[in-house]
Amino acid sequence: RKWLGRCNSLSQSLLLVRLCSLAMAALSPSDGAGALSDLHQDLDAICREDTAPSRATSCVESLTNDFGSKTIGYFAGFSLLCNSIIGPGMPGLPNVFVEAGWLSPTICIVVLYIMTTMSCSMFGELMRKIPGNDHFRGRAEYTTIVKHFLGRRWYLASLIGLNCALQSLNVVSIIQSAQVTDTAIAAIFVKSCSLNLTPFKNFWTDDNGQEHYVNHSDNFFSCFDVNDRSQGNAWGCHVVISVGYVLVLLMAVPCSMWNLDDNVAIQVVCLILGVFFMIAWAVISMVSYSSMEHDGLSSLKAINSSPALGSQAGVLGSILFNWNVLTTVPSWINERKPNISVNKTLWCSTTFCVMMYLFISLAGATAFADVLQGPVTGTCARQLRDPAFNCPNDLMQVMTRGHLIEADWRQGAVMNVLIQFSVYMFPIVGEVSSIVVFSIVIKYNLVENGFSKTFSNVFGIALPWMVSLPVLYMPNIVAQFINFTSLIFVTFANFVVPLAMYAILQIRELREGPPKDDVTPLGVHEHHAFPLRWGPMTKAVLAVSMSVLLTLGSLVAIVLSVQEGNYTINQQVCALVGS
What we know:
Blueprint: H1 9-26, H2 34-48, H3 53-64, H4 74-85, H5 93-100, H6 103-128, H7 142-150, H8 152-189, E1 192-196, E2 203-205, E3 211-213, E4 221-224, E5 240-242, H9 243-256, H10 264-290, H11 315-321, H12 329-335, H13 342-367, H14 381-385, H15 395-400, H16 407-411, H17 413-448, H18 453-468, H19 477-512, H20 536-564, H21 571-575
Antiparallel strand pairs: 1-4, 1-5, 2-3
Helix pairs in contact: 1-2, 2-3, 4-10, 4-13, 5-13, 6-11, 6-13, 6-19, 7-8, 8-9, 8-17, 8-18, 8-19, 9-17, 10-13, 10-17, 11-19, 17-18, 19-20
């Protein structure tokens, strides 16, 4: 009805004929998904004959605006996938290496790298097994694939899991981006401002037991230097709408309204800048380490067994959070060019990301093992010696505190500006870009499953901003949020459900034999997750083993996080919120 109302009577008649043939084609499993692309061509021909060209153009646009076209090339896809992996959790990885020791996080990163890439490739094979989607000629989003293989109940569960996994990523990205933008504003203009929706007085107590009022903490409108928290944080544990929050919102929301292929140029630029910034941080860390004096108490250990500082509970959740890429893979495959290899793009992008992870994590943890705050313990070695010391929550906070890095870097005017610029720009290039991608993926899944475009935009784009607002300046909220949402939702949506579907597909093919694929069209790259010589039983056992291993690991990590975590929130903690 939407299309017919935009064309004249002649085009309406032609459209009715074509839509009837589309309905008949949908009854055929081999032609259903491909019929949509045929309809696009017919609509072009029909609307060119329309006597009202402007109305005819809007007829075609109404059909194609909800999704992008198959125009994403290799490097654009590489950039999109890398930006989905190198996101909000990356600056906190050195903290995990310090708290747990370098051995278990390194093993975990490498294992998850292999399992994630294999799971994504398996999911690509599931996509091309959807009737009518041979060689990805149609379109199938994450939840549509789950509905086909597992039925409506699992579809509803996957819809919840997918949205929670992606929304959690967006919430963390929004919090980090807004906080760093506030510090950038304060660095340039001395202060950043906000509307305090919950004005109440904050107090902090010094080492002598003297209580101090935190200035501006009970003001409805307040401005203070967020880079100087020596006298407390006026926004700690308050619900505030800061200038940084508003600026990040204005950057991310308009781009989230676009389709995935419309964001390609932004993704490429963001990846190049993000990699440059991370390499710079690693180099600064190594130079700072070489100029420091070290002792056995504050050095990076293989396994941190300290009762006060060591914990393995945050390893799996914190690292798993950074591998939440599978849920974006279907949208990328749907809009990539047909001649682009899925496996090549996946393995190249994940290999590049794992190398960056290890480089940044080991360099940052080695240099700043004394000061980085543990995600679970909530403290650091220097804070045990000096209770007034505020441990940095991630590597970005280390870079903004000049006294923690090597003197020559912080004293040189040009180098100091470049360091500050890299920290303040990273949330834009590394995190705002991922907010855009995840919002689009949520929107795509909702639209394809029958939800209105208005509801999809509100739920996919507006909801994470509403959720992040109350927790913008809560103590240690980012680390705890990353840990638990990863262990629950990322494991379920990125591994348990896809691997279960792949095992079911292999068992079905073992019983019934593999379906006969269409002849691969010229210029189209055929996708298989594993070599053709691998039998269905081998692939099914591999998928089940991976799913069981990650599920058991997540359950153990949840128990350890609850037992060993520090969840104290009191007047002192609120007044000294460091991020």
